Fold this protein.
Amino acid sequence: MSTVVYIPRDAGALSLGAELVATAVITEAKKRNLGLRVIRNGSRGIYSLEPLVEVQTANGRLAYGPVTVADVASLFDANFLTGGAHRLSQGPSEEIPYLKSQQRLTFERVGVIDPTDIADYVAHGGYRGLRNALALEPVAIVQAVLESGLRGRGGAAFPTGIKWKTTADQAADQKYVTCNADEGDSGTFADRMLMEGDPLMLVEGMTIAGVAVGATQGFVYLRAEYPHAQKILNEAIASAYRMGYLGNDVLGSGKRFDLEVRMGAGAYICGEETSMLESLEGRRGEVRVRPPLPAIKGLFGKPTIVNNVISLASVPVILDKGAEFYKSFGTGKSRGTLPIQLAGNVKNGGLIERAFGVTLKELLYDYGGGSASGRPIRAVQVGGPLGAYIPAGQFDTPVDYEALSGIGALLGHGGIVAFDDTVDMAVMARYAMEFCAIESCGKCTPCRIGSTRGVEILDKILQGVATDQNVALLEELCETMLNGSLCGLGGMTPFPVQSALKYFPEDFRRAPAKGTRTAQGMR
Amino acid sequence: MQALAPSQQEVVLRVVTAMKSRPGPLLEVLHGVQDTLGFVPPAAIALIAEELNLSRAEVHGVVTFYHHFRKHPPGRHTVQVCRAESCQAMGAEALVAHAKRKLGVGFEQTTADGQFSLDAVYCLGNCACSPAVMIDGDLFGRVTPQSFDALIAELTPK
């Protein structure tokens, strides 16, 4: 029997050369007349070790990483196929400290299985949730999701079960389940990793949602920047159709559920749920006024569930192991686990799934190993481009919805971006406004025009022109945007700006640059 | 506005015919056209509008709303440099400046020899390996000015 070797096809691993490594491993094995089978798995989420090559041995799965093409011959020389010691040996995969201390529920299979192989998925506990769901009354499925305490992982943290109940309660000839896979926040990649590493879990979650609310059609709205996820997801959906897990008779239940992937087109705003629905309908992604809620009048005017990838992928576990099991993780009103994404200037960036409550400090230093540059970490931005900047003095804050909102920050989709002490927070504040100007859908004036005015004001501040007056004006502008925008883009762009002003005021007190006119009359 | 070449017209009609019965087909149609032609020719807008029973304004509005759709033919290779926060924390702005200098173009421009188009992108989901660059759909992480030059050299005709 040939040895099984795992080499990820996760986009992040590919970006570090996994494809070349896979080719080199196969070529080298042929050259040495060794039988091996390469499985292209997802990533375990330890990007400092990618490309991570794993071998199935008599002593379990052993890991080697980070592997480059130049290491391949020496791995064979060291008999890595039988677990031989090598400079890159990481020991048993599950024992790697970065992984061992995690509590993986949603990411349990990511990096473990062959992402598009249904048999492998089922062998690792897949589709138990759907089987249980099909044996229940739809109301009982909704009840389980309600009781689990699951809150939307996209960013808004709205209780998933309430959305489901609202849609389930509507009488309509057609309902939809839509998955928001427009993961546009910088510093986040959990959706991508899940879709590339365990896409069937998302397919299963959406199927359960369809059965629960009486929807027969699902759409995954996937961002155009994720071509690898698109390919893997489509392969997984095709497998599910082939094996009877999708289609007009799901697992012989007589229930229908169809699923297709629709591609976005590079608009950040389409991560906002009503804008995403507009885009799915083939229109400009302009935000809709709510009410009506999408759960009542959503896609094509029909009752529609809109959930994030991780929210939907959390459902199979809840239906498999029960609401109580899921709820037993976490703290206060933040129940379950959270896939945290550690990014930016950290040594060991990656995915860390833990019950709510782990502190920023633990994440940045115990997992992250401090900054990549070796300089002190000065600030982190949590929750994407609309999230607040948090100074080092507050790194004891636990990562949960309530604790973060207690310090005026937000958890969002769980991305943490670290900056070292070379960061200029006034430049980051300018970027926040610039990003809003680029991505605004144009519907609300404070967002459409205010963001451009914000860039202009910050340009003056950066040049040291009338900084006191301009900072006051900027604060006023932030208030207007905050209160005068329909959705989170205009309404939350002020968060990074205000937090930068609050915690890093020294970065905004600048001397006039040489050659600029003096402060007088420059407002 | 340049008129639609017969071959382009054929592509547009083929894509529209394949997609028009689907719900909300416009974005799918535009993707199909761009995937084949490399861009959405402005002259295709009237044809798409007519085939989908939409106004030209509606189609134009959608094409111009989404950053992904191009109005001009791209270079042979498309280079996207991420400039979102995570990549900035790892030197993306310096990489952007380097890329512009190296290729001699700004964002949304194509080199004079038609080889490379340069675009800004806001997050490629590779934030644990910042800064990130995507070239023709292939993703690269921890890109330095040196490794950027090597990637470009590989794609430059000798």
